[in-house]
Design goal:
seven-stranded mixed beta sheet, 204 residues, 7 helices, alpha/beta, binds S-adenosylmethionine, Rossmann fold, 7 strands, globular
C-alpha cells in the first residue's frame, strides 16, 4: 500500500481566511504593486509553485477546496521560501465573490478542472455563466483568463458559454501547452498522450 506523508496541519495558519472587513488585492503581499495571478482549483500546488519560483516579481494565490491538498501546497511554499504565493482553502465561487476586491485580479488560471462528464453532474462544473459573472467582476480591465482541459466535451461546453458573453474577448493564445500542463494532472495526462484543449480570453 502507498504510504502518504502525514499532514502538518499547523501549516494552515498561513492560509488567507475570509474577512468581512478586508478584501484581497495585491496589497496583502510584500510587492504590493505587482500583478495578482490566481489559480482556481490549484490541487497540490505544482503549477503555482513553479510559476511563483520563476516569476518572483508577480503575486500568486491558489484556491483549493480540499484541505489535504492545501497542506501540500503550503509545504511547497515553505520548502522554497516563497513570499509571493498564498492560498485559500474554500469553494472557488465563494472565494471569488466574497474574498477578493472588485477589479483586483490580472490573470486567472484554470488548469484541468474536474470535467464532471455525466449530464446529471454538469451542475457541479465550475465553468458556468454565473462563474463568468464573478470572473468579470473581480478581474481588472484587460485581465486574462487561461483555461486548459483534456476533456473535449467540457472544453466545448465552456467555450460555448464564453463565446456568448460579449464582456470577454477570445484572444490568440499566449501560453504554450508545455507551460500550462506543468501541473499534477497535466503531467499525468501527458503520460497518457491525451490531447489538450485550451482557450484564453480577456476582459473587455
Ligand atoms: C482535476 S484537479 C486539477 C488540479 C490542478 N489544477 C492540476 O492541474 O493538477 C481539480 C482540482 O479542483 C479542485 N476543485 C474542484 N471544485 C472546486 C471548487 N468548487 N472550489 C475550489 N476547488 C475546487 C479539486 O479539489 C481539485 O484539486
Amino acid at each position: 500500500m502507498k504510504k502518504y506523508k502525514p499532514y502538518d496541519w499547523t501549516l494552515l495558519e498561513d492560509l488567507i481566511v475570509y474577512n468581512t472587513n478586508s478584501k484581497i488585492t495585491s496589497n496583502i503581499f510584500d510587492n504590493q504593486n505587482s500583478e495578482l495571478c490566481v489559480e482556481i482549483g490549484c490541487g497540490n500546488g505544482h503549477f503555482l509553485t513553479d510559476k511563483a519560483l520563476n516569476n518572483p516579481e508577480k503575486n500568486y494565490i491558489g484556491i483549493e477546496i480540499k484541505i489535504g491538498r492545501i497542506v501540500r501546497c503550503i509545504e511547497k511554499k515553505v520548502k522554497n521560501n516563497l513570499k509571493n504565493i498564498k492560498y485559500i482553502n474554500n469553494e472557488a465561487n465563494f472565494a471569488l465573490d466574497f474574498m477578493f476586491e472588485d477589479d483586483s485580479i490580472d490573470l486567472i488560471y484554470m488548469t484541468f478542472p474536474d470535467p464532471w462528464p455525466k449530464r446529471r453532474h454538469h451542475k457541479n462544473r465550475l465553468f458556468s455563466e454565473k462563474f463568468l459573472d464573478s470572473v468579470f467582476k473581480k478581474m481588472k480591465y484587460g485581465g486574462l483568463f487561461v483555461f486548459i482541459t483534456d476533456h473535449e466535451e467540457y472544453f466545448k461546453y465552456s467555450s460555448d458559454i464564453l463565446i456568448k458573453d460579449i464582456r470577454f474577448e477570445k484572444i490568440e493564445r499566449i501560453s504554450s501547452n508545455a507551460e500550462l500542463s506543468n501541473s499534477l494532472f497535466g503531467e499525468k495526462w501527458k503520460k497518457e498522450n491525451r490531447k489538450f484543449y485550451t482557450m484564453e480570453f480577456k476582459k473587455r
